[in-house]
Amino acid sequence: MSSLLSAPSALREDALRRLKREMWARAVKLGLRSWVGWRRGFTSKADPQRSGRVTAEVIEHLERLALVDFGSLEAVARLEKAIAFADRLRAVDTDGVEPMESVLEDRCLYLRSDNVVEGNCAEELLQNAHRVVEEYFVAPPGNISLPKQDEQEPFSHI
Amino acid sequence: MLGRTLREVSTALKQGHITPTELCQKCLSLIKKTKFLNAYITVSEEVALKQAEESEKRYKKGHSLGDLDGIPVAVKDNFSTSSIETTCASNMLKGYVPPYNATVVQKLLDKGAVLMGKTNLDEFAMGSGSTDGVFGPVKNPWSYSKQYREKRKQKAHGENEDSNWLITGGSSGGSAAAVAAFTCFAALGSDTGGSTRNPAAHCGVVGFKPSYGLVSRHGLIPLVNSMDVPGILTRCVDDAAIVLGMLAGHDPKDSTTIQDPVKPFTLPTSADVNKLCIGIPKEYLAPELSSEVRSFWSKAANLFESEGAKVIEVSLPHTSYSIVCYHVLCTSEVASNMARFDGLEYGHRCDINVSTEAMYAATRREGFNDVVRGRILSGNFFLLKENYENYFIKAQKVRRLIANDFVNVFNSGVDVLLTPTTLSEAVPYLEFIKEDNRTRSAQDDIFTQAVNMAGFLSCLQDCQQ
């Protein structure tokens, strides 16, 4: 991975693209296939009963933001029902009404004094993590976004 | 002994009629006998016996810590308990052992309570039936009562004994069932939209929701930060008052707890309702309200009136919008609160290692059930830039209107509102699952969530007692 950082930019781009393809193929093999598969199914079927409010773009956007997938058409239908339910709020006249964030808005939030009174519990906290190296939580490489629908490779080689 | 109230048992312990260890053993054996209710996710047998032993030593020396010393209690599994698995009935936190106690748990333990175990709930406290957790649904102890069995025999013949059991309501169903089945004398639940009062109603126990800011939320795995409160479930109102007295008060670890000092209180032995003004909100007379609940509501109102209280009709005009408002605010805050579950520092982690995003996505897909995922996605929808003003801010404005409704009523001389908690009595599981979680929550939370949004306290007691 570190060699990527020192290579000239054109080579780096190429290497990154290759890496993305390999990783995506591996990820799909490991189980994201069904996520991808359901979205393919979604765009190819048009359900006449749905209002069409939740478009494919919105779905993709929400899945990216939430990092949680819909997984099925039923889930999309449920979201549309939830939106229709929420739309009932339009009937309420809220002119001149301030939004209420907390029922305790009339009070000052408590701030304790800035003194260290507890801590030094790194070992305890690390015990709950699956992957740990010395005192570090280990994460996979970052800054790699999930591929868009049109960037997917055909699965014939898997 | 197990059917007594907390106060009665506490007196028995102080007078030496029973020891904490004997009491603990009795509760543990009853928990084993009632395992089919599925009220407990974790039974902390060793911990409980050790705590009972220590309580016994204190009683022998005459140094009891008070009314709660040696009393078996249960805690809903979304409160962090040190060294005891805390799962929120979700795959995401299976195997998660917190390194600290929630403040309310610590307070109970400091007063000598004996922790029997962690009770079952809907996954992440989302639901109104206690049917959607990964450890299975909780069965209402009343499904096995003589009255219900007689009723079932009359309806169908040759039916499988156990197929028509009743739900407990939710999401603190396990806590309610644990108290109703006499396996403990008090249990902690959480209340965001009625999650303590709904199962209390269906299981025939007292469910108390304190005012927002009175009891610390530190250690309660959050659902909706602006509405969550720990709830108390007991078999009588006096017991709930005892527990509340131990739990209420400012906590430096929860900056949303109010700083006003909490004065110790005891309930009067005889209630004098002569000077009380009771309001009956007319909008709560919903068409879906069952005739049985309506008649009990009437009876309660008449009882108060006959004892000298003033009973008047009041209006909470925005009642019909409160469930919609709650739905938007709840899903929005949930979307934010559930973002912490990414598998890195705690909880479930999948095997994918290609990128953080891929790992987070797969972890969350494996860890959360449909209900949780649905709410996260709905919440994210309402928080999108193009929707923020029309949904989230709008809901916050409606919240103010709802809170103002309550304030106006209480400012007009009304001391307390008398309302039903649920639309009908507990339904059989097979009927409950005919509709999805979101629909059921929208139906079942109808009376309870308005109070959460306004922050007021609410107490529920079974009418048939």
TrEMBL record, chain A:
A Gene Ontology BP annotation from the UniProt entry: regulation of translational fidelity
Catalytic activity: L-glutamyl-tRNA(Gln) + L-glutamine + ATP + H2O = L-glutaminyl-tRNA(Gln) + L-glutamate + ADP + phosphate + H(+)
Location within or outside the cell: Mitochondrion
Entry keywords, A to Z: ATP-binding, Ligase, Mitochondrion, Nucleotide-binding, Protein biosynthesis
Broad enzyme group: ligase
Any one GO cellular component localisation term in the record: mitochondrion
Domain of life: Eukaryota
GO MF terms held by the record: ATP binding; glutaminyl-tRNA synthase (glutamine-hydrolyzing) activity
The EC number(s) this enzyme carries: 6.3.5.-
InterPro entries from the UniProt entry: Asp/Glu-ADT_sf_sub_c, GatC
Protein role: Allows the formation of correctly charged Gln-tRNA(Gln) through the transamidation of misacylated Glu-tRNA(Gln) in the mitochondria. The reaction takes place in the presence of glutamine and ATP through an activated gamma-phospho-Glu-tRNA(Gln).
Quaternary structure annotation from Swiss-Prot or TrEMBL: Subunit of the heterotrimeric GatCAB amidotransferase (AdT) complex, composed of A (QRSL1), B (GATB) and C (GATC) subunits.
Family from the record: Belongs to the GatC family.
Protein name per the record: Glutamyl-tRNA(Gln) amidotransferase subunit C, mitochondrial
Organism the protein comes from: Callorhinus ursinus
Lineage, uppermost ranks: Eukaryota, Metazoa, Chordata, Craniata, Vertebrata
